[in-house]
Amino acid sequence: MNTAQLKEQTKKMPSRPGIYLFKNSKRKPLYIGKALNLKNRLKSYLKTNNPRLEKMIMESVKIEVTETENEIEALILESQYIKRYKPDFNIMLRDDKQYGFVGFTGEEYSKIFITHQPGSRNSSGLRLGNLSLDKLHLEFSLPGKPTYIGPFTDIGALKTTLRLLRRIFPYCTCKQTHHNYCLNYHIGKCLGFCCCPKDSPKRPVLSFIEGSRRISVYEKNIKAIKDILSGKKYSLIKKIEKEMKMLSSRHEYEKALELQYKIEKLKKIFANAKINRAGSGVMIYHNSQPGTIELLRKFLNLSSPPRRIEGYDIANIQGKHAVGAMIVFTDGEPNKNEYRKFKIQNRTTSQVGTLGDVGMLREVLARRLKHPEWPMPDLILVDGGKAQFNAIKSIVKNIPIIALTKNEKHAGHKILIEKNKEILLSKLPASLKNLLLQIDSEAHRFAISYYRKLHAQSIK
Q1: What are the boundaries of each domain within the chain?
Q2: Prediction pTM value
Q3: Any bridge partners for residue 328, and if so which?
Q4: What is the pLDDT of residues 332-346, one digit of tens each?
C-alpha cells in the first residue's frame, strides 16, 4: 500500500472510537491499534518517518476497522485481537515489556494488580501497591498462582478502567489484614470483611449463610471484572439480569434493585465514558446514578425522585473563622456551579463560640432560605445528630431532611430521618450508603477548604 492508497482508505474511515487492523495480501493482521478517532489516527500514518511503520504500511493491502462505543471498549477489544492474532508488527514496534497485564492473585479474596511481566517472580514491575510478587506470596501465603488478562497497550486507561469498575464491583486492595474496616470500605470500594480478620472484635458476627453470601458476592465481583476485561460484557449483563429477575420473583426487591443499579451503571460506562488526556493524568467522565436516586425516593417514601440534594457542614476551631458550606448534587452527581459559602456573620469570638455548631448551622440554613432565586432542594443532608436534625427541622418546612452521624473514629455510622428514626448505614444498600457518604464528604471538604482560605488570609 503506497501513500496515495492509504490516503484514499483513510477518507472512508469513521470519526469514532474503535480498533483498526492493517492486513497483508493473505488477510493476516500485521498491526492492530486502537483510537478515540479512527479517521484522525489513521491520518497520522501519512506523516510517519518511522522506517518500521513505513515497512508495515508497504506490506499492507487493506485497513479494516471495528467501531466501539468508546475508547475503553476499544482498549479491551484491542487486547483481545492482539492476543488472538499476535501481529508481527505489534511485537516489532513495541517492546513487549511496555504492555500491561491485569493479574488476579490466587488467595481466598483475590487481589487485582497490573504488571508488565506476567509470571515473573523476580520482576520489580510485578506489583500490588508497593509489594513485589515475592513479598505478596510471603505476606498473604497465596495457595494458588496468579492468573492474567492482557495484553493492554494503554496503562493509564487500564488503571482508570479498573478504578471505575471498582465502584460497581468492590474488591480489596489492603496490603495486610487489620482490626478496623479500611477507608475504602467506608466509601464503598471494599466489602470490608475481606481485609478485617475473622477474630477481629470490630468485625460483626455473621451466620454461616450470611458469611457464605458475602464471600459469594466478592467472588462474583472478581469474576465480573475478569469477564469485562475479557470482552464478555454482554454475557455478564445477561447473567446479572437473570439473577435480578430471580430475586424479584422471590420478592427480594432491594437486592434486585441493587443489581439493576449495577447494570445501569455498567451500561453507562461503556455508552458514555470518555478518557480525557488534557492533563497529566487520565480521567473518566460518566453519567449520573438514576438507580440510586430512585432507591432513595423509595427509601424516604417520596412522591418524586430527589433530583436536587443539598449538603451542609460547618468548619471552625473554637469559633474562629467559622464558616458554613452548601454543596449540591443534581441527579446523584456534584453540581459545583451551585455550591455556596457562608461566613458566619460578624460576632466576637466568644459569641461565635457560644453559638455552637448547631446555631451556626441554623444560621446558614436561614440565610440560604432568603435566596428564592436558588432552586429549592428536594432533600437536605446535614452532618450531625438529633441536635442538628431538630435545628434544621425548626426552620425548614416541607423538605425531607437526613442527618448523618459519625462514630468515635469520625466515620459515617448512622442516619436520622423523619420521626427521629435512626438507621445504621451498614443496613442500607451499598449504592445508597455510598451516595450519602459522598455528599457528606464533599460538604466537609468544601467547608474545610473555605475555612483554610480565611485562616490563611488572617495570618497574612
Answers
A1: 3-94, 100-285, 303-459
A2: 0.52
A3: 310
A4: 888 888 999 998 875
